Amino acid sequence: MNNSAPLSATRKFAVEVDGLECRYDDRVILENVSFAVKRAEILFIIGGSGCGKSTLLRNLIGLNQPAKGTVRYFGRDFTHASPAERKRLLRTFGVLYQAGALWSSMTLRENVALPLEIFTTLTRKERYEVVALKLAQVGLTGYEDYFPAEISGGMKKRAALARALALDPEIVFFDEPSAGLDPITSLKLDELIVQLRDTLGTTIVVVSHELSSIFDIADRVVMLEREARGLIAEGDPKTLRDRSEDVRVREFLNRRREPVGQKGGFAT
Predict the structure, then answer these.
(1) Which residues make beta-bridge pairs with 18?
(2) Beta bridge partners of 175
(3) pLDDT tens across 86-144, in order?
(4) Separation of alpha carbons 145 and 150, rounded Å
(5) pTM value?
(6) DSSP E strands: which ranges in 112-170?
(7) What gap in Å lies between CA 170 and CA 156, rounded to an integer?
(8) What are the structural domains of the chain?
(9) Could you give the C-alpha distances from 38 to 14, 210, 222, in angstroms and in order?
């Protein structure tokens, strides 16, 4: 393959997970996990507390090294890649962490510019031009010089998303994006996620247990279960809710959800 070509040029799947085992020392959290994410798909990783959702995410993005198995991005092995290849693959995805993970001592402009400083040779002026575009994309024009402590929780999530988008990634991972947000702000974040997919063709992978988001925007879900230490269901969430033969899946997806009428615009 021509290494200068876009990684996604001829690939049906953006992410492929094959036989993944995740552990902490001798404690196995997940074993034999396999699934794939299509390009421009919104896939949710779901399951109850302690099932390994966040652990799986950490293994997917390279924060933890899988004990077994392989993660591939656009057909390229990320798990066993050389440092140079891994750096190249890291540029294909962005991550929105649960708490945003913004640097408190940096302005929003400086936070969003950080990936550009690390991964590109752009000048400072060029970096800040990109930052302005990314902040505008998430509705934060005019907040470039604010510090994280000076803005609301919903705005912090949007600023963190702008940083995740700084390198124009083809995949964006979200770790519990609605955590700590009111229903109004949560809905607007869901709408922004769909907009990213629809306008830019971005592949979206979301770790979440929020039923409103799952049913409103997920194309497909993969469900983990703690006792099984792995994947117990995969497919359309509404179909799984109504027709799954696994009582664990039906119980999880038929939990009471908040009324749709409680959701609306971003808090500022």
Answers:
(1) 70
(2) 207
(3) 989 988 999 988 766 788 899 999 999 998 998 889 999 999 999 999 999 888 999 99
(4) 10
(5) 0.86
(6) none
(7) 22
(8) 12-92+171-258 (3.40.50.300), 100-168 (no CATH)
(9) 6, 22, 13
